[in-house]
Amino acid sequence: MSTDDTTTSSNYTDSYEDVSAFSLSDDREAQLLDAQTECVFMWTTRDGDPVGVVMNFVRHDGAIWLTCTRRRKRVPAIEARPRVAVAVTSRGTDIGISQALTYKGDATVLEDPETLAWFYPVLAAKVRPGDPDKQAAFVAHLDSPGRVVIRVDTDTRIGFDSEAMFANSPAGATTTHVGTTDPGGADDG
Question: Would you state the pLDDT for residue 8?
Answer without folding.
Answer: 37
